[in-house]
Amino acid sequence: MSSAVLRTSKPALGFASLVRLAGQSNGSQAGLTRTLLGSLSSCHPLHRRSWRHYSVRMDQRTGLLFRQLFESQSSTYTYLLADAQTREAVLIDPVLETVERDARLVEDLGLNLTIAVNTHCHADHITGTGLLKKRLPGCHSAISKDSGATADIHLKEGDRVTFGKYSLEARATPGHTDGCMTFVLNDQSMAFTGDALLIRGCGRTDFQQGCASALYESVHKKIFTLPGECLVYPAHDYTGQSVSTVDEERRLNPRLTKSLEEFVKIMNNLNLPKPKQIDVAVPANLVCGIQNV
């Protein structure tokens, strides 16, 4: 049994050594715990996407394991993080089409995947969390409580997903969607920003409860306040880049270095086509991606 716990701002009730119930008024909301984590990673961008299967770096001193994986159809990054001693692992933003690849990597590395978490309810691909739960018994799904999506674990601002002496802090970063979350490693060396902050960009705000001013505030208050050397790992990249830093984005992001008024104007005039899979992906992701699986 795992000893990982989900730490919340309210007292939690014991539920075996693997699970804790996050206090809710109706007593029914399970705040399952899980997991994590992973090593500092210096990932080299690969210019040919067919080569970019995953990036890796192990920090032997701290005992953290990290893998960055890529799905080419939606240009989605999936992140595997694990405690090298306990072997507990978490997967961030899994994609349905690459579940077998990810499950096989978990098994090859001798890991116990306890949680698969989405940074938000995606519109451009179907999440792999539902299928992963079937493929790897003991895995549980997680997403923000503000997403409106079904999951085993509903996270809120300030929750910490722990694994041994490490944890990921959940920071609510709405604006792209209401339920967007950024996950920050406890030493603030890594931030998994979903679509809120991309490398030299950000998520669009013209559908799914999008709000440009809310996104601007989220990034500036919840991400740009992190140390400058903190590594930024987004949910997507379309230009062959795999990692940035908070300092780089504070200085060089062509949208988020503008004033709020300029940013809102930019976001309101992107005129982008809607994501190809939105009509299929959003309904599926609202039920953990398990329909028709």
CATH architecture: 4-Layer Sandwich
Shape label: globular
**CA radius of gyration:** 18 Å
Q: Give the low-confidence spans.
A: 1-5, 9-58
First CA to last CA: what distance?
28 Å
Percent of residues in beta strands:
25-35%
Largest sheet: 7 strands, mixed
How much helix, percentage-wise, in residues? 10-25%
Q: What is the number of helical segments per DSSP (H or I, 4+ residues)?
A: 6
Task: Kindly report the name of the CATH homologous superfamily.
Answer: Ribonuclease Z/Hydroxyacylglutathione hydrolase-like
Top-tier CATH class:
Alpha Beta
The total of beta strands comes to: 16
What is the number of domains?
1
Summary of the model, kept short:
It is found in: Mitochondrion. Its main location: mitochondrion. Helix content is 18%, strand content 26%.
Q: Can you characterise this structure?
A:
This protein has about 290 residues and is of the alpha+beta class. It has one domain: Ribonuclease Z/Hydroxyacylglutathione hydrolase-like (Metallo-beta-lactamase, Chain A, 4-Layer Sandwich), CATH 3.60.15. Helix content is about 20%, strand content about 25%. It contains six helices and 16 strands. The protein has helices spanning about 100-110, 130-135, 210-225, 245-250, 260-265, 280-285; strands spanning about 5, 10-15, 20, 55, 65-70, 75-85, 90, 110-115, 140-145, 155, 160-165, 165-170, 180-185, 190-195, 230-235, 245. The strands form three sheets. A seven-stranded mixed beta sheet has the order 1-11-12-13-14-15-16. Helix 3 packs across helix 5 (about 260-265). The longest helix is centred in the C-terminal third of the chain and has 12 residues, at about 210-225. It is globular. The two termini are about 30 Å apart. The model is unreliable at about 1-5 and about 10-60 (pLDDT under 50).
